[in-house]
Every structure is written in structure tokens, then in C-alpha cells.
């Protein structure tokens, strides 16, 4: 950002930033107990950065909540800890393992950790009495998200009712909720995957190293490259090999595939995405592939 | 630990040579709202814009191809790309406003795609509220319909500054110029009754691609630009008000830290005008005056702030400022007012009636309103003003007199879409039930 603008124009990235900062401030002003859901992925890094800017030089006036699946990439947790300590925010970790142990969610051996996150998350929101939970969801990610509001109302079971959403006009957000309900807030609604990367390039902030090309021991399952891991035993016929890969999304490492890539800088990642022909979720998220409406179903239940 | 700082120093010179990592950050933004029914090919057109700008990915296209095939269609139904919710696919209708994104090298586009039939007014008003441009589709075989007029009326009420009428399905009338000319004349005549500062009428075929991205060879008689060319070049920067300074205070930043012990900043998004350090300003509604000491954008002091920047303003004097207040210029400030004359679009089944009490949100200010009078109901098809019916039903628009509990710091909507708009909220359910555009205040 330069000092003055001869033509008073803002780039689209600056406009998106301004809009998102407006949303952060609006929530901080109107909600009693907001929380920022932080996954350690690139979108939640952008969220942290925007929150930092929205309240500077004050600290971010709400805590950060991470749902730990127990299957998270160590590189992601490392990045999370750096951010939390740099910003001086309070981190709350809601552990899926703990939720299983406490009987909050049931691990039947068939349900993915990703899905068990839902119950864990809702429990954490309820226990802490959070009234607004910021998420990094973008409308370009998936068809069901394309219709979701910036302020997305959740009933007292944490569910989303797509057919009964409040109209959302201008930049006038309606944050009214009743006891037991909460609002999911999506400040990145209008950002695309490319916008996220351009912003990370512009801001020069730390992101998990697994986004960049690296050597990794991987095996192929259902057409995706998965990381070798103690949590992810190989099955018959699956052969572990070393490949040059990077991750396009980060999540539960038993489900999140990587792509073969030489992109070891953000600019190279941008180049790669600009010519990519498959959506980031379709390419590397086992959890979204099960049905055309997979995301819609999970969202209704209370997913991010 | 990898950081982009490391990576960019590694690559240095080659940054941005391939796909414009350099050029993209300077791209601007156009938000447009589309209107039309299932039958005039709106979804096909959006599908084509996404496809031709390479915003659709292989897996999305494959899913749609598979569905089209299993349904026995002759061609890929691009409309399937935009029907997001399962109940929509099941019923073959679009229920809600959907937002879509695509970009060309010079511009990023946000489409608010609004359904033609179901809840059309509520959804169109929502989609149009943030739009710079409205795109109305008509079927060339049908000509102007009640629905296309209605769409134009709503876009005009919402003060969407640019309008494009796309005359679609030209391929089905053998690219006939006379038909296009007739539709253009009919529409232009109708548009004179509305507030439409900029109108383009473009003959297209969404299915065949004529005049969508490239100028069509099938219509040599058409001298104008293709739809995409128009969307890329329409000038939106001057639609903002850069004269009348309006800064609704959203949040007071008080770090209470040792380093920033005395820092007190007023955070908000500039709604109008240009703010500069040194400006003499007035804080509303108190009327206290002060001077802008500095404008902060994150950790940087900047020389000017203008719409739609989100900044933090510091004042030279220790005046009392809180959320809901507004910073304006001493000689150019809205007069705090409690009597509001507005157009209201009603969005819920229980009708709006005189004496009703509701919550209102206007910029960063919230309060309550009493409905004093419903002056008339506007027939959005004929522009007839019905003064007999003293209520507004779902999806109806009318002129209403309100009295607010707190004074609003408002402008006419025709002057400023941010300080001239408000929403009405049902206090019992918490639901947004009305959208308002201010005509004037007293």
C-alpha cells in the first residue's frame, strides 16, 4: 500500500482485505464471545493475518480454537505455535482423541477423523459458550458453500439450514442469535484460492512447509498420494515410494492427499494453480469425494 | 520452517513472469448481479463465462457431463454447474442467491446469481445490493417480459449504476437484427422511467457463445462489444462518492499495552469521501469537532483513506467517540434524524403494517423503529403506486415512514449506498425481514 492514490483505486486484493477486516471488527463489536477456528491451513493463516491487522496495535480480542484430530501434520502444528506465540493469543485445543475418550463422539473405526471433528468442535463451542466462530471457508471451494452467508446462523444443535438462511444485504450483517445458538462467520467468503496465495505472497508470512515441494514417502490410494504415517497403515498392494510432492490443502493426514509438484515458492505455486485443472478439494480431499453432496451434508451437521 | 520470505529471495528475478504474480495484485473488482429465469439461459451463460475464463475445473465439468449423460441430455447442461444444493438439483430450480467467481487478466468478477422465480424480489434485492452492474437476460424469441421489466426496476431501485440487457438465444431467431432492434427500443423506452445511468444491450447466444467472449461473426450488424469485453472495461471507479466524507465508527481500538499506552483509534470502513491527516472533522451525533491526527492502516500511517478502505483514525483531541458514531467534515455532515422516509423491500411472510416495531441496523448503528405509515406499495411490474393497501407482503416493495429511537446519521440512498441503506430485524426471531433505501430524513 502506497501513501497516496492518485486515482483512488484499490486493487481487488486490497478490497477483499478491507471487506474481511470490516467483518472481523463487526463481529468483535457485536458478539459477546467470538472465537477464531484455526486449522493451520493457508486459509486460516490468512484469517490470523487479517485479525492481526483488524485490531492492531491491540491484540486480537478473542481466542483461537483448533480441533486436533490426532492425525495432524507436525509441520502444521509447528506453524500454529509460531503464530500463536507471535500474536500473543490464547489457544484452545479441542482434541478428537479426548472427545472420543469422553464419549462426546464415537469412533466406530469407520468414521473419519474429519467427521468426528464435527462433534468435537460443537462440543468445544458449547462448553466455552462461544457465540461466534470464525471459519476460513470460501464460496469458491464447493457448490454448497456458494450459497452460504458471511454470517451463517447455526441452531442450538449447531446445524445449518440452507433453505432458511437470512438475507444478507450490503455490508449490513445481522448478528442476532438466541441462547444456545451461534453464528459461523466467514470473512473469506469472496476470496478464491488464487487470492489466498497472492495475499500470502504479498504479506510474506509463515505458512506450513508442507505446502511447498519436498521429498516425502507416499503411497497411492484411490488415485491420491497419501503420506506414509503410523496413523495410516498401508493396505495390500499399496507400495510406499519417495516422491517430490506438496500439499494443496492440509487436514487429517490419513485423508489429505498430496500432488506431485516442483513448486517450492509461492510464486511457483501460483503458477501451478493458475494452470491446474482440478479443484483443490477434488484433487486431494478424500472426505469430499464420497458423494456430490458430501460437503452439504457435513455443513448441515455443523462442519466448518 | 519455510516462509515466503525465504522463497521469494530464492527466486528473486523470475517472480511473476509467467502468470502475472505481479500483474494480478493490481487487478480491480467488478461485482455483478444476474437476473433471469431458468428458461432464458442464465445458468448456461454463467456456465459459459466460467468455462471460457477457465474458472471451471475438470472434475466439476466431468461431474456435470456425467449427470447430463445420465439424464439423457443431448448436450452438457452447464446450468448444473450452478445448482449447488441437493434440493435444488432434485427440483431443478435455484433457491438462493449463489456467489460465483472468475477472473480475467485485468479483472476479478463476483457474480451474485439470483433465481428468476422463487423468492425473486428478496433474492434480487440481496444480490443487487452489492452489485456494480446488473445483467438482465431476455429470450430473443419472447422479447421483453413482465419479468425483465421487474428485474430492471429492482436494479434501478437498488441504484446499481450499470445495466446490461443480454438478448439471448439469437441463434434461434437466425441472428435477426430487426428483432434485436425492437427489443432494444422497447427496453430503452421503458428504462427512461427508471434510474439507469448506463445501459448496454448486447445480442448473444449463451449456448453457442456468440458475443459472449468474442464478437460474433453471425451478427456483423452489431457494432458493440462482446459481453465479456464490456464486463472487463465498464468503468466503476467513479461510481463512488469521493466528495462527502463519511466514516462510521465500527470499533474503538485501545491496546492497553505498555508500548501503546495512550493509543486510541477509531476503526471503520470509509463509506464516502477522502480522509486526510489534518482534516477538521465533526463527530456525530455529539457534534464535537476535532482534527484527524493520523490514519493507520495496520502498522503504517497513510496519507489518505477513501472507500472502501478499512482503516483506523486517530483524532487530535480527547473527544468521546464510540461505535455507531460517525466522523464527517465540519461543513459537510449528515443531520442526525429520527424521521426516515424510505423504500422498503419486505422479506418475510408476516406482512409489514403501520404501528409495527422492529430493530434497525444502519451502518454501525442499531436501534428500534416504529412504522408510522405505509404510503404506497409499488407494483414492480407496472410502476403503479398502490395507495389503498396499507401493508407490505412478502417480496413487496413500498414507500414507508419510520420513526427511530436513536438518531440515524444517514444520507439519501441515491447519494450514498452505504449510509443510505439499512436492514430491519424482527426482534423476536432475530431474522432480517426488511431492506431499506432512504429517500430522505427529517
Automatic annotation (TrEMBL), chain A:
Bilayer-crossing residues are none
Q: Name one GO biological process term.
A: sulfate assimilation
Give the top-level enzyme category: transferase
Pfam families, A to Z: PAPS_reduct
**EC numbers for this chain:** 2.7.7.4
Q: Which UniProt keywords apply?
A: ATP-binding, Nucleotide-binding, Nucleotidyltransferase, Transferase
* All copies of domain Phosphoadenosine phosphosulphate reductase, residue ranges: 34-257
Q: Matching InterPro entries, A to Z? A: PAPS_reduct_dom, Rossmann-like_a/b/a_fold, SO4_adenylTrfase_ssu, Sulfate_adenylyltrnsfr_sub2
One GO MF annotation is: sulfate adenylyltransferase (ATP) activity
Protein family according to the UniProt entry: Belongs to the PAPS reductase family. CysD subfamily.
List the protein's name: Sulfate adenylyltransferase subunit 2
Q: Which organism is it from?
A: Nocardioides mangrovicus
Q: Which gene encodes it?
A: cysD
Automatic annotation (TrEMBL), chain B:
Q: What would be one Pfam family of this protein? A: GTP_EFTU
Which parts of the sequence are annotated with region: Disordered?
1-26
List, in alphabetical order, the GO biological process terms annotated in this UniProt record: sulfur compound metabolic process
In the Enzyme Commission scheme, what number(s) does this protein have? 2.7.7.4
Keywords of the record = ATP-binding, GTP-binding, Nucleotide-binding, Nucleotidyltransferase, Transferase
CDD domains from the UniProt entry: CysN_ATPS, CysN_NodQ_II, CysN_NoDQ_III
Biased-composition ranges for Low complexity? 9-19
Q: What is this protein called?
A: sulfate adenylyltransferase
Its gene name is cysN
Amino acid at each position: 500500500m502506497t501513501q497516496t492514490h492518485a486515482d483512488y483505486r484499490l486493487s481487488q486484493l486490497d478490497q477483499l482485505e478491507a471487506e474481511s477486516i470490516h467483518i472481523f471488527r463487526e463481529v468483535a463489536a457485536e458478539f459477546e464471545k467470538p472465537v477464531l477456528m484455526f486449522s493451520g491451513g493457508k486459509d486460516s493463516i490468512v484469517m490470523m493475518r487479517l485479525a492481526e491487522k483488524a485490531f492492531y496495535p491491540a491484540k486480537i480480542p478473542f481466542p483461537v480454537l483448533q480441533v486436533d484430530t490426532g492425525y495432524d501434520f507436525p509441520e502444521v502444528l509447528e506453524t500454529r505455535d509460531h503464530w500463536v506465540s507471535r500474536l500473543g493469543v490464547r489457544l484452545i485445543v479441542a482434541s478428537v482423541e479426548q472427545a472420543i475418550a469422553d464419549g462426546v463422539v464415537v469412533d466406530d473405526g469407520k468414521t473419519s477423523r474429519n467427521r468426528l471433528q464435527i462433534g468435537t468442535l460443537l462440543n468445544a463451542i458449547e462448553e466455552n459458550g462461544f457465540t461466534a466462530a470464525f471459519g476460513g471457508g470460501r464460496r469458491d471451494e464447493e457448490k454448497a458453500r456458494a450459497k452460504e452467508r458471511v454470517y451463517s446462523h447455526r441452531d442450538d444443535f449447531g446445524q445449518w439450514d440452507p433453505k432458511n438462511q437470512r438475507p444478507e444485504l450490503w455490508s449490513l450483517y445481522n448478528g442476532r442469535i438466541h441462547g444456545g445458538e451461534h453464528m459461523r462467520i466467514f470473512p473469506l467468503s469472496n476470496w478464491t484460492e488464487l487470492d489466498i496465495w497472492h495475499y500470502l505472497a504479498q504479506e510474506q508470512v509463515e505458512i506450513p512447509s508442507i505446502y511447498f515441494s519436498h521429498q516425502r514417502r507416499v503411497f497411492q490410494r484411490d488415485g491420491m498420494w497419501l503420506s506414509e504415517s503410523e496413523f495410516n497403515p498401508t493396505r495390500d498392494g499399496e507400495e510406499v515410494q519417495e516422491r517430490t510432492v506438496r500439499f494443496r490443502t492440509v487436514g487429517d493426514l490419513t485423508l489429505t492427499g498430496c500432488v506431485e509438484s516442483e513448486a517450492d515458492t509461492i510464486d511457483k505455486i501460483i503458477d501451478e494453480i493458475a494452470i491446474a485443472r482440478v479443484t483443490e478439494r477434488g484433487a486431494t480431499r478424500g472426505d469430499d469425494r464420497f458423494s456430490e453432496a458430501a460437503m452439504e451434508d457435513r455443513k448441515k451437521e455443523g462442519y466448518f | 520452517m519455510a516462509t515466503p520470505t525465504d522463497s521469494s529471495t530464492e527466486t528473486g528475478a523470475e517472480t511473476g513472469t509467467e502468470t502475472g504474480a505481479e500483474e494480478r495484485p493490481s487487478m480491480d473488482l467488478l461485482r455483478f448481479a444476474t437476473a433471469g429465469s431458468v428458461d432464458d439461459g442464465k445458468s448456461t451463460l454463467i456456465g459459459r463465462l466460467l468455462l471460457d475464463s477457465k474458472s471451471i475445473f475438470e472434475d466439476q465439468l466431468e461431474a456435470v457431463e456425467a449427470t447430463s449423460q445420465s439424464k439423457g441430455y443431448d448436450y452438457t447442461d452447464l446450468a448444473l454447474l450452478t445448482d449447488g444444493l441437493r434440493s435444488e438439483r432434485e427440483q431443478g430450480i435455484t433457491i438462493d442467491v449463489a456467489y460465483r467467481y472468475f477472473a480475467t487478466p485485468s479483472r476479478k468478477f463476483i457474480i451474485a446469481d439470483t433465481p428468476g422465480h422463487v423468492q425473486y424480489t428478496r433474492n434480487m434485492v440481496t444480490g443487487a445490493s452489492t452489485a456494480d452492474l446488473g445483467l438482465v437476460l431476455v429470450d430473443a424469441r419472447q422479447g421483453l417480459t413482465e419479468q425483465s421489466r421487474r428485474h430492471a426496476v429492482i436494479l434501478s431501485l437498488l441504484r446499481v449504476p450499470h445495466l446490461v440487457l443480454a438478448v439471448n438465444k439469437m441463434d434461434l431467431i437466425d441472428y435477426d437484427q430487426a428483432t434485436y432492434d425492437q427489443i432494444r427500443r422497447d427496453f430503452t423506452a421503458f428504462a427512461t422511467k427508471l434510474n439507469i445511468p448506463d445501459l448496454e444491450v448486447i445480442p448473444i447466444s449463451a449456448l453457442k457463445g456468440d458475443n459472449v467472449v468474442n464478437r460474433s461473426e453471425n451478427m456483423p450488424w452489431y457494432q458493440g462489444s462482446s459481453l465479456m469485453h464490456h464486463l472487463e472495461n465498464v468503468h466503476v471507479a467513479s461510481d463512488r462518492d469521493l466528495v462527502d466524507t463519511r466514516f462510521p465508527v465500527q470499533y474503538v481500538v485501545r491496546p492497553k499495552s505498555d508500548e501503546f499506552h495512550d493509543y486510541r483509534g477509531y476503526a471503520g470502513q470509509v463509506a464516502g469521501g477522502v480522509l486526510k491527516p489534518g482534516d477538521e472533522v465533526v463527530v456525530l451525533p455529539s457534534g464535537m469537532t476535532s482534527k484527524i491526527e493520523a490514519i493507520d492502516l495496520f502498522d503504517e500511517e497513510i496519507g489518505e483513506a477513501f472507500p472502501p478502505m478499512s482503516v483506523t483514525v486517530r483524532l487530535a483531541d480527547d473527544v468521546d467517540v464510540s461505535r455507531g458514531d460517525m466522523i464527517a467534515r465540519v461543513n459537510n455532515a449528515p443531520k442526525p434524524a429520527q424521521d426516515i422516509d424510505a423504500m422498503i423491500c419486505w422479506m418475510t411472510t408476516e406482512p409489514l403494517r403501520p404501528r409495527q416495531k422492529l430493530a434497525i441496523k444502519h451502518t454501525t448503528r442499531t436501534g428500534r423503529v416504529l412504522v408510522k405509515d405505509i404510503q404506497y406499495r409499488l407494483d414492480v411490474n407496472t410502476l403503479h403506486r398502490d395507495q389503498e393497501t396499507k401493508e407490505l407482503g412478502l417480496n413487496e416493495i413500498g414507500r414507508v415512514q419510520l420513526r427511530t429511537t436513536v438518531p440515524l446519521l444517514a444520507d439519501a440512498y441515491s447519494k450514498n449506498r452505504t449510509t443510505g441503506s439499512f436492514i430491519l430485524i424482527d426482534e423476536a426471531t432475530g431474522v432480517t425481514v426488511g431492506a431499506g433505501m432512504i429517500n430522505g430524513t427529517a
